[in-house]
Amino acid sequence: MTLKRPAERRGATSTGASEMLARKAETIFIEANRWALIAILSLMAVLVFTNVCLRYFTNHSITWSDEVSRHLMIWLTFIGAGLTLRHGGLVAIDNLQAVLGGRQARALRALVAAIMIIFFLTMIWAGKIYVERTMFQTTPSTRIPFGYIYLAMPIGFGLLIIHFLLVLRTYLAGGMGALQQSDDAPPVAG
After folding, report:
1. pLDDT: is 74 or 97 the higher one?
2. Which sequence ranges are marked TM in the entry (predicted)?
3. Phi, psi of 15 (to 5 degrees)
4. pLDDT at 128 over 90
5. Distance in angstroms (rounded) separating the CA atoms of residues 156 and 177
6. Smaller CB count within 10 Å for the chain: N or C?
7. How far is CA 44 from the centre of its chain?
8. pLDDT for the residue 135
């Protein structure tokens, strides 16, 4: 039996503690993302329901409700894309990697992952330009600068990168199918 030195024991404990802290931070990040989606979807539902009721009962409607609902849908789409990717819910054509052997399939998935990250970074850059160009144009009803609506694009792709990096090891090991089998994944039809 070998006795561990105090420094070795601290190293093992700090590694375990840092791993636990990283998992806790990831859980907080996922929950914040989920609650943001819930809040946006709830706001959309209340807004549309209220507008329908007002239109039906009073023959008047909220003039800006359609516009705001549309803008919330844009935010919902971009903010939710990262969680969808994380759980393997995005479309993936994996016929080639299924035919390839283990090492070749992992290499192909690594290439696909690199291409995805490059695409996400490109979309953040393009979104930033789009936001800058539309910041002085305003929406018809609410007079909100379009830049704030299109800010969903770089933020959403930033979240996509974070979510993808957090599940990258699982993706490289087994592809999108492996992401669908993770413990916190919602049920996926298929």
Report:
1. 74
2. 35-57, 72-96, 108-127, 147-168
3. -65, -45
4. yes
5. 23
6. N
7. 19
8. 95
Q: Is 120 exposed, middle or buried (0-12, 13-18, 19+ CB in 10 A)?
A: buried
| 69 neighbors 149 (Cβ within 8 angstroms) | no
Domain membership flag for residue 64:
yes
- Burial of 139 (C-beta count, 10 Å sphere; 0-12/13-18/19+): middle
As a whole number of angstroms, the distance between CA 119 and CA 94 comes to 19
Per the domain annotation, does 189 fall within a domain?
no
Does residue 186 form part of some domain? no
Which pair of structure tokens corresponds to residue 82? Answer: 């990262």
Q: How many domains does the chain have?
A: 1
Full domain range(s) for residue 46:
6-180
Query: In this prediction, what percent of the chain has a pLDDT beyond 90?
Result: 65
Spatial CA neighbour of 171 closest among 187, 153, 185, 186: 185
Q: How far apart are CA 81 and CA 73, in angstroms?
A: 12
Rounded distance, CA 80 to CA 51, Å?
25
For residue 161, give the amino acid letter. I
- Tokens representing residue 88 in the block: 């393997």
Q: Decide if 71 is inside a domain.
A: yes
DSSP state of 145: B
What's the mean pLDDT in 100-117? 90
Please provide the average confidence, as pLDDT, over all residues in the chain.
86
Per-residue model confidence (pLDDT) at position 187: 46
